[in-house]
Structures are given as structure tokens and as C-alpha cells.
Design goal:
25% helix; transmembrane transporter activity; alpha+beta; binds adenosine-5'-triphosphate; ATP-binding; P-loop_NTPase; AAA+_ATPase; 20 strands
Length: 362
């Protein structure tokens, strides 16, 4: 069962009355990859997934699966399978009949259905539970039944809508690892909708960050983390400080940014027209304290909050026109030179830990 397909979304839009849920989205998801659609509530990720599945019609554009255009095909003819957030199991059917349901709809004889359902249950390590009803299973087990039910049709792509959201935090992490393992062993394309950055980072080969019906960035996790394209991505991923100001000069591959009523900061990246609005991002985990500040690569601020996190300490600092600057220090670095709320502290970082972000209309 490793007939993976590339999913090609071409200028797809979805309009509901006066709401544009998805606006001219184009995206190529490579065959056999694990793709996470990531973004805040209402950004259009579920609508995009449902259009791939065929549960929602596109208002414009095309969807291809492998070499076939599937835009106008019903869900069952597309070669995709969808796993719903609520699992949508039938309470009156036992686990094996739940898994075999789509085969029954296709008229597959009972013996064969049962045998294939047991095979699928083995894949998700639930063969011993075949005769139970869904209500007699834990949340994690129900989730695996839903997975087996989706996979029984031998899909080329599995579409998962917030598949981990109903699980408690410990189970979430365990089932997450199982999902990844399953995707690797099946070799099919997975598209997984989530609003959790951590989940997307842990699972995806390709993260697609969506905002307001559009794609802000589609890239492997490490690129998203190290080179966020836009201020939205940098803020949403939560590992960067975003500083906004006016372009004030350019030297040695660094854009200089004047912050209103504050300091000047340098960011690695392209020049911008003098005086235009620009944003730079600074990695929170690369901030150091207590060292001399190089021009544009640090400032002295007042500590507003200190949050102990075990292996690290989060400092919130204000100064140089910035009200909430975050530095994540290792516990060793912090306790070698501890600071407290109200202290004035010099913060610094390196040029390579900064990046000039794309302007809003890029
Ligand atoms: N059937 C519908 N009728 C009208 N508007 C809709 C419909 N479905 C979704 N929308 C709107 O489209 C936008 C995108 O919704 P969508 O469910 O795709 O977002 P999402 O990113 O998946 O959010 P969430 O994480 O909350 O599920 C939202 O503004 C939503 O209100």
C-alpha cells in the first residue's frame, strides 16, 4: 500500500457569501510527504483540507492528485481518505464493522470485509479490540480505529483534520510519534491540519503556514524556524522577536531600522527604500545578557518579567522603543548571572540571528 500521490493545488479559492475563506492558494505537496497546514482559527486550513477531500467544492481553481484532475470528483472517487476531528465512529457498530464500513458501501462481501478490517486493526495494534463498541475504547484507541477506517480504502493521500486535538497532552505526544511512524511505513501522502506549531514542527516534512485565507510560507520546518518569511510567521511560530520600524540605511548586507522613539537595529537581508516600513526578526534563543552591546545588535533594557522553565529561563525586557522583547536563556547562562524584575540589563545577539522580513504586500 504505497501508491502515494502528489497533491497539486492550483489557484484555489473558496468564497462563502461575503467571506473569502481561501484566496487563490497554490501549493504542491510532494508524493509521500507529511504536510501540516498550520495557522490560527479561521485562517482557512480546514476549508483547504475539505476541498482536497471533495467535501467542499472549490469556488475557483483546480486540484490534482497525481496525474488526475479531481476538482469535480466526489470524495470516494478521488483516492483520498479523510479522518475527522471527532472520529465520527458509529456507536452501534463494533470496531471491525466501523473499520469495514466503506467496503460495505462498495458491496465487498462480508468475509473479505472482516478480513481486511482485521488487517487494518493489526496495523494500528487494535486487533484484540475488533468486537468492542467505540464507547468501550479510550480516546487514543478510538482515534486509531478512525485511522484504520480511513486507511482501509488504500488511499493515495490521507487527510487528517486536527487528529490529535481530543487527546490529553501525554497521549498527544505518543500518538503523534505513532502517526509519523505509520506515515513512513505506508509511504503515502499525509495532510494534517493543526493550530499547534509544536505538532507541525514534530511531524511535517512541509509546513504550510496560513493566515487570512492565504499561504504566508510553505517550507520544511527548519526553514520556517530559521528563515521565517513574514512578520506573521515569525510571530506565530513564537521563536522570534519582531521589531518594526523605518529603513534608515544599509551596510555590509545589513538593513538598519530606526524604531520610533527608540534605538536602531540591524537585520540580515535585502535593502529597503529609505524611510519605508520594515520588520526584522531576532531569534529569542540566541539572546545573551551581560556582554558589551555592538551597535544595532543589542540594547540595554529593563527586566519586566522572569519565567523559570526548567532547562531555560524566559526574560521579558523593555527598552529602546520596544515594549516586550523576549530572551530565552539556558538555565546555566541565567544562573551564572541572574537578574530580577526592574534590573537594567544589556542584551546582545549576533548578526546571523537576525533576518529582514518580507514586506506585507510582497
Ligand atoms: N460553511 C461555511 N459557511 C460560511 N463561512 C464559513 C463556512 N466554513 C468556514 N467558513 C469561514 O471561512 C473561514 C475559514 O474557516 P476554516 O474552518 O477553514 O478555518 P480554520 O483555519 O480551519 O479554523 P479552525 O482552526 O477554527 O477550524 C472562517 O472565517 C469561517 O468562518
Amino acid at each position: 500500500m504505497s501508491n502515494a500521490a502528489t497533491i497539486d493545488i492550483v489557484s484555489v479559492s473558496k468564497v462563502y457569501g461575503s467571506t473569502t475563506a481561501v484566496e487563490s492558494v497554490s501549493l504542491k505537496i510532494p508524493a509521500g510527504s507529511y504536510c501540516c497546514l498550520l495557522g490560527p482559527s479561521g485562517c482557512g486550513k480546514t476549508t483547504t483540507l475539505r476541498m482536497i477531500a471533495g467535501h467542499e467544492r472549490v469556488s475557483a481553481g483546480d486540484i490534482r492528485l497525481g496525474s488526475s484532475v479531481v476538482t469535480d470528483l466526489p470524495p470516494a472517487s478521488r483516492g483520498t481518505a479523510m479522518m475527522f476531528q471527532s472520529y465520527a465512529l458509529f456507536p452501534h457498530l463494533d470496531v471491525a464493522d466501523n473499520v469495514a464500513f466503506s467496503l460495505k458501501m462498495k458491496g465487498v462481501p462480508k468475509e473479505e470485509r472482516r478480513a481486511r478490517a482485521l488487517e487494518m486493526l493489526k496495523l494500528v495494534q487494535l486487533e484484540a479490540y475488533a468486537n468492542r463498541r467505540p464507547a468501550q475504547l479510550s480516546g487514543g484507541q478510538q482515534q486509531r480505529v478512525a485511522l484504520a477506517r480511513a486507511l482501509i480504502t488504500n488511499p493515495e493521500a490521507l487527510l487528517l483534520d486536527e487528529p490529535l486535538s481530543a487527546l490529553d497532552p501525554f497521549l498527544k505526544v505518543r500518538v503523534r510519534a505513532e502517526l509519523k511512524k505509520l506515515q513512513r511505513s505506508l509511504g503515502i501522502t499525509f495532510v494534517h491540519v493543526t493550530h499547534s506549531q509544536e505538532e507541525a514542527m514534530a511531524l511535517a516534512d512541509l509546513i504550510v503556514v496560513m493566515n487570512d485565507g492565504r499561504i504566508e510560507q510553505a517550507a520544511p520546518p527548519r526553514d520556517i524556524f530559521e528563515r521565517p518569511a513574514t512578520a506573521f510567521v515569525a510571530r506565530f511560530m513564537g521563536d522570534h522577536n519582531v521589531i518594526s520600524g523605518k529603513a534608515a540605511g544599509y551596510a555590509d548586507g545589513m538593513l538598519l531600522l530606526d524604531v520610533a522613539g527608540g534605538g536602531t537595529f540591524a537585520g540580515t537581508g535585502p535593502a529597503r527604500e529609505h524611510g519605508s516600513s520594515a520588520d526584522i526578526a531576532i531569534r529569542t534563543d540566541r539572546v545573551r545578557i551581560g556582554e558589551p552591546v555592538q551597535p544595532g545588535l543589542g540594547f540595554t533594557g529593563i527586566v519586566q518579567n522572569v519565567e523559570y522553565r526548567g532547562s531555560s529561563v524566559k526574560l521579558s525586557v523593555s527598552g529602546a522603543g520596544i515594549s516586550d522583547f523576549t530572551g530565552i536563556l539556558s538555565d546555566a547562562d541565567f544562573f551564572a548571572n541572574p537578574v530580577k524584575i526592574g534590573d537594567a540589563v544589556p542584551l546582545c545577539w549576533e548578526a546571523q540571528d537576525t533576518i529582514v522580513l518580507q514586506p506585507l504586500d510582497a
